[in-house]
Design brief:
The chain is α/β, with parallel strands linked by helices and about 650 residues long. The protein folds into three domains: about 110 residues, Chitobiase, domain 2, CATH 3.30.379; about 325 residues, Glycosidases (TIM Barrel, Alpha-Beta Barrel); about 120 residues, Alpha-Beta Complex (Alpha-d-glucuronidase, C-terminal Domain). The strands form six sheets. An eight-stranded parallel barrel has the order 6-11-12-13-14-15-16-19. It has a five-stranded mixed β-sheet with strand order 1-2-4-3-5, covered by helices on one side. A two-stranded antiparallel sheet has the order 7-8. Bound molecules: 4-O-methyl-beta-D-glucopyranuronic acid.
Length: about 650
């Protein structure tokens, strides 16, 4: 299949079937503007009289509706007419896709006025796409869905696929996309200057869907692209270069979103190289963007990746807080600190990053990972909605949740040029769920899954079987991989499959410290790295205490003896054995459940899911056997149930 030909591409959650309810009705669209035109195009023919669906752009919402802002909409149904009202074109587009999601339900009975306004002002997907194929990371860093939809082998691709992507994203509520990898190589760096035309072309294609384009830029760009002797953020020449370069970007793309920066992180250049703070660095770029209304997303993922494993005083988990919390209040308004949800790195289970609560005077974006780098790489079915929902609802600062503290939600996309978009067809649900949760973090992740099933797989697909496969799949994945929040234990480099000691003696700062007595990282204030002290109460004390610490995070915070009794009543070692046997067994059950979908979904999709589930079953057994054998050999404690451990 030619990948630029959309005919073979799965329609994901926008199949023609999803539009039936609208297509069979008389629709009126009132208003002007690019996004209103998009709605008109989606609707097809519109009428002026006798409409059963009215989509109206109006400055005025009914008095019982509060302000709708730039993107919100109101929906009601009275006297047989369904009405969507919006104050701005983007709101009308989101309202339209909401009606698509509702389907026939949008045209039933009466509906009181509902107000839908996004909780997060920016809902952004970052692509870790490279322009040239990177010798180690490939076309898309941590991409498991084929190639990039933007570039292939150094060249920009036909944009038909990008257009289809924009449409899919708009239908979930996404409004910003960063095109290129945060690890910026020279080819991507040049998107800012002589390759700007490529960015403008993508912006032109995504604009009708209400999506603004952002770029990852290199902090060293004034040197590498501008030929200046320094990239010192306080140097006048450097500031002038950013100002001029940014002005040219806005000449080409007036609604350009802004920059994303990974600085002083895993080898990327940054302000530390010039003896400056990260606020100095972020503010220099923020100042260049401010006249045009742009923003800089400055990543907090700053840590020492050249650590000595023998040194027990350095704790990677502490790094972001240690670097950034003292800078609270010194960032410009248009500088947004982008913080990974956990203190380490997108693990299957981590505590919430304490940075999110530590910077009340800073705009914070929380970053999630839709691409399943550490959660099965789209070979394992792992529905992440429940994890993200748990993260967003977590009361980190008194009663204030993560969703309440974050101004924005960002995630690394899992989409590529694969015919199902996401490699594993069931991983589409993750992309869909991210957009929906970013719009409304209080949504139930299992209802979101229902929406996706309805739209993407249709009414014939066995919903019960799909829920049985996916609802707990994140916890299942957790159960057969690294235990009790300790993280990693993956194969170095590509991060797929088990390798308990793979990172144990490396410089990366991700250790489990298993010995014959116990396992886990002592991050307490009393005897460990003191990381627990970065949390507000009650968490500082809850995590500090071996007794009070939640089971699922025990080994993140404590070096616990194998015979320590968990809240569940099991010991650490027996928990490891039990969960690994049960988790691997569960994947066999998932594989069996999929059989119920035979004949209910397209044959190519069916075949792809089977192939992936087979691999999941194989891989889960490998995880089980390696983890169980490792801990049996370390501890000498046999399985109480006498099962096979090698
Ligand atoms: O999870 C790690 C990945 C890197 C990635 C880095 C980051 C883009 O292994 O591939 O680099 O995080 O978030 O910057």
């Amino acid at each position: 299949m030619d990948i630029d030909d959309l005919s073979g591409v799965h329609p994901a959650w926008l199949p023609p079937r999803a539009f039936q309810a609208i297509a069979s009705r008389r629709v009126a669209v009132h208003g002007t503007g690019l996004l209103v035109e998009t709605v008109r195009e989606e609707v097809g023919a519109t009428v002026t009289a006798g409409a059963e669906l009215v989509l109206r752009l109006t400055g005025e919402a009914p008095s019982e509706v509060g302000p709708l802002g730039d993107e919100g909409f109101a929906l009601y149904r009275r006297d047989g007419v369904t009405v969507v009202l919006a104050g701005a074109p983007a709101g009308l587009l989101h309202g339209f896709f909401h009606v698509v999601r509702l389907g026939e339900a949008a045209f039933a009975g009466e509906r009181p006025v509902e107000r839908h306004v996004p909780a997060m002002r920016r809902r952004m997907l970052d692509h870790w796409d490279n322009i040239d194929v990177h010798p180690v990371m490939g076309q898309v860093e941590r991409g498991y869905s084929g190639g990039s939809i933007f570039w292939r082998d150094g060249v920009q691709r036909d944009l038909a696929r990008v257009r289809a992507y924009g449409r899919l994203l708009a239908a979930t509520g996404i409004n910003a996309v960063t095109l290129n990898n945060v690890n910026v190589h020279l080819a991507e760096a040049r998107l800012l200057t002589d390759r700007l035309g490529e960015v403008a072309a993508v912006a032109g294609v995504l604009r009708p869907y209400g999506i603004r384009v952002h770029l990852s830029v290199s902090f060293a760009a004034p040197v590498t692209l501008g030929g200046l002797p320094t990239a010192d953020p306080l140097d006048e020449g450097v500031r002038g270069w950013w100002a001029r370069t940014t002005a040219r970007v806005y000449e080409a793309i007036p609604d350009f979103g802004g920059y994303v920066v990974k600085a002083d992180s895993e080898g990327q250049p940054g302000p530390f190289g010039y003896g400056r703070s990260h606020a100095d660095g972020a503010n220099a770029l923020a100042d260049a963007l401010a006249p045009f209304g742009g923003v800089v997303h400055w990543r907090a993922f700053v840590y020492n990746h050249r650590q000595d494993w023998r040194d027990r005083s350095t704790d990677r988990a502490r790094a972001a807080y240690d670097h950034f919390a003292p800078l609270d209040g010194t960032f410009r308004d248009n500088a947004i600190l982008q913080v990974k949800y956990g203190p380490i790195d997108f693990q299957t289970r981590e505590p919430i990053s304490p940075v999110i609560a530590a910077m009340p005077a800073t705009n914070v974006a929380v970053e999630l990972q839709v691409t399943q780098e550490y959660t099965g790489q789209q070979r394992h079915a792992c529905y992440l909605g429940p994890m993200w929902s748990e993260v967003l609802r977590f009361p980190l600062a008194g009663r204030v949740t993560v969703a309440g503290l974050a101004r924005e939600l960002v995630a690394v996309s899992n989409a590529g040029d694969d015919r199902f978009w996401t490699g594993h067809p069931l991983a589409q649900a993750n992309l869909y769920a991210f957009g929906r949760l970013a719009w409304e973090p209080s949504l139930d992740p299992l209802s979101i899954l229902d929406e996706w099933i309805d739209l993407a797989l249709g009414p014939d697909a066995d919903r019960e079987a799909l829920h049985a496969i996916l609802d707990d799949s994140w916890r299942t994945y957790e159960s057969y991989t690294a235990p009790l929040g300790v993280g990693f234990m993956v194969r170095p480099g590509h991060h797929y499959g088990p390798d308990v000691d793979g990172y144990e003696y490396t410089p990366w700062g991700t250790y489990h410290f298993a010995d014959r007595e116990g396992v886990g990282v002592d991050r307490t204030r009393a005897t460990g790295t003191g990381f627990t002290g970065q949390y507000p109460q009650p968490w500082a004390d809850v995590y500090e205490s071996l007794e009070r610490c939640p089971d699922e995070l025990l080994l993140f915070f404590h070096h616990a003896p194998y015979d320590h009794v968990l809240h569940s009543g099991s010991t650490v070692i027996q928990h490891i054995y039990d969960t690994h046997f049960a988790g691997a067994e569960r994947t066999v059950e998932m594989r069996r459940l999929w059989e119920r979908l035979a004949g209910q979904v397209a044959p190519d999709l069916d075949a792809r899911v089977r192939e992936r589930l087979d691999e999941q079953v194989r891989s889960a057994a490998e995880w089980r056997d390696q983890i169980n054998t490792y801990f049996f050999r370390k501890s000498g404690v046999p399985d109480a149930k006498g099962r096979t451990i090698y």
